[in-house]
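In response to a reviewer's request, we include the raw inputs and outputs for one of the modeled complexes. The two entities were modeled together in a single run.
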Amino acid sequence: MPDPLVALRAPGQLPAGRRLRNGLRAGARLALALALTYLGLLAVTFFIGRVIPVDPVLAIVGDHAPEHVIARVREEMGLNKPLYVQFGIYLQHVAQGDFGTSVLTANPVMQDIARAFPATLELATAGILIGVLVGVPLGVWSAVRRGGLVDHVVRVMGLIGYSVPIFWLGLMGLLVFYARLGWVAGPGRIDVVYQYSVETVSGLLLLDAALGGQWEAFGNVLSHLALPAALLGYFSLAYISRMTRSFMLKELAQEYIVAARAKGLSETRIIWRHALRNAMVPLVTVIALSYAGLLEGSVLTETVFSWPGLGLYLTNSLQNADMNAVLGSTIVVGSVFIGLNLLSDLLYQWLDPRTQDR
Amino acid sequence: MKLLFSPLRRRSLPLALAALVSAGAAVQPALAGTPKDTLVLAAAFDDVITMDPAEAFEISTGEILGNTYDRLLRFDINDPSKLLGDVAKSWTVSPDGKTFTFTLKPGLKFASGNPLGAEEVAFSLHRAILLDKAPAFILTQFGLNKANVRDMVKVTGPLTVTLETDKAYASTFVLNCLTANIASIVDKQLLLSKEQNGDMGYAWLKTNYAGSGPLKLREWRANEILTLERNDQYAGAKSKLVRVIYRHVKESATQRLLLEKGDIDIARNLSPQDLAAMAGQTGVKVTSTPKGTLFYISMNMKNANFAKPEVREAMKYLVDYGAIGDTLMKDIGVIQQNFLPMGLLGASKVNPYKLDVAKAKALLVKAGLPDGFKVTMDVRTVQPVQGIAEAVQQTAKRAGIDIEILPGDGKQTLTKYRARTHDMYIGQWGADYWDPHTNADTFVRNPDNADDAKAKPLTWRNAWAIPEMTKKADAAVLERDPAKRRAMYEALQTEFRKTSPFVMLFQQTEVAAVRSNVDGLKLGPTSDTTYLFGVSKR
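The model returned the following structure tokens for the whole complex.
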């Protein structure tokens, strides 16, 4: 029964019982959605992984192994069982928190990921920071000075960002900034001299070096990070600035902007305080998805820069049909997407109170 | 939100990206060179899956184990026909050729400090047989198995071990097999302390180390870094290097940049293009050695056309060996049309085939296929095999053989090949141990050509039924007179060249580019004989 009084209350002032019930219902809905998402993700990955025409046993025993060894390993890996049974066993283990062992690295999958993911996280975070800190102002600027020089420059940069292969750009970057100019350190995360001097705490080398007070190593890590981060930053910048521009153009054409100008507000305040604040709402999604994309690990960038991240790990595992590793990585990548989606939803509500749940 | 700056007033933004790119440079200039006591190599080692010598069978792991584990014997890399004692001081073979007795050097220790004696040697061989992983066949082929290994390999004194074989094999065959990584000596005491459910330390050793070699394994991080350190317990000449670091760098161009810049000392996987560009540069030298790996194209005789001997021989005339050797295989391979790579007993220099379209056409007419035929070839999308396949596609077309290339990932084409569902396949085969039987076993032996055969050598994969040749190959491994044994392999290869479904192409040459301040690097003929403990830096 609709309560006529509710309509008179302001949002957020529902009776306590009703609010709790709504909250629980929303929580349950979320949990169910999450469970289904993960299950679907795992099922699709598992079955695709098992139907690709690669014999997973080959990755373990190699091409020269005798037949009886191959047969035994196949048995040990449970590959003789029907696919759905294999999947069921896998789910059972996952439910108990056991993600299995990678056949390629001989380590528990989660241990491998705990090592590969921070490398990717560090790179992706640096990349997205560049993308946002440079891309958003550039986008705003080109929207404000539409058709001006900056607008053209941004458009050309965006075009290059879209059309030049990242692989090639990475190699060129190395050639110029590392080999010729010597401005940055080369491929890898850290010079070998520091390899064993930085104690691993978080796996984020910048953080670990800072925690240990090793500023020389910190500088070296930063120098290694600069080029691949700039490269990823450039690619996300190209996208973010273009989206910022179009969101800003839409906002700047709104009536409230005219009203603000009529009120005599400064142009700076109109652009940054009013127009951008409204453009931020859709922009948050764009940024979150760009970040999630970077967190998947960029296999090409990681290959060129010998960056031991998640992209390289996932690709290598997939090529060898190392399903535990592939599924484990999929869960992590999936969680990143889901987490960032939730985060951007929350940011939405904060940026735009109208979208808050009633 | 307070405004910090207005982009309309500040004109420095376009420079932001450039500033960020060079941010690291301001903090710290790139270090020139690597420490003098540390050798840094760039290599692609994503094939490594275990560090246990009883299981490891991959090329990169071979090299690591060769440097970190001792075995009874090693062969001399300067003259592979000569055997040298490693932990064995001396060895004898009984007159009937079936009992081998090894006397060990006294006072040896593992890197852990545990003593290394006859007990440990016997345990190591027992363990390899009992675990029965992929490379165990190297030892089981002379009659060892799970049931009898404790009787066949026995401790007869604190420093003496005997090994019995089921037949009187060529003694060099048995001894050569004992130089392989599978026969590495492992630290019994250490492994038993790490044992879980009677696994003889198998689970632990996958990522750990229990050896006695001149270098010891410090750490293997998949796809990232692999570090060896000097073993100070080593009784022989100690490694001049304190540390050897392999960095996983997959891309040839990246390896080249690192080498030019001096951030690595040795680049291991340069493409012919990058090698050519490096040649003649100051500060860098190139070293190379022929390897026991062969490139070949095979024809599945389940395909009715390839069942005809004329067609198989015609294919051998449809490869432009010279042109491919001068381009795609330049510096990384030499022509080899036999199944034994140079360096092995019985290897042959006879390479009779050249591109001869007219001869190939004549053979096709004889086979009743004057207009040629259509066929597919499974090709891995990596160089140089992809390039070779495309070159052969061109030349074969001139005789009417229309090859459709089916590109695929390495493991994918291999899966198909192993199930013998291919028509043509281009691949590589590396010797498993340093004895001619390793290749004879797979190229000229096919004990059972049935679909459910127990052994599936390359002959089986191409459905080449050869009972007579199989007998000859079996006889060759039992021949104890080296001269006669050599003649037997030469005869087998003569027959093989003419009739086999294998178009043998090239023997691989391994090349490494090295900074000129590095001395003493010699790439070995096998993956497990590239020794780094003799290397030093100026």
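As requested, we also summarize the result in words. The longest helix of chain A spans residues 215-252. Chain A touches chain B through 88 residues (CB under 8 Å).
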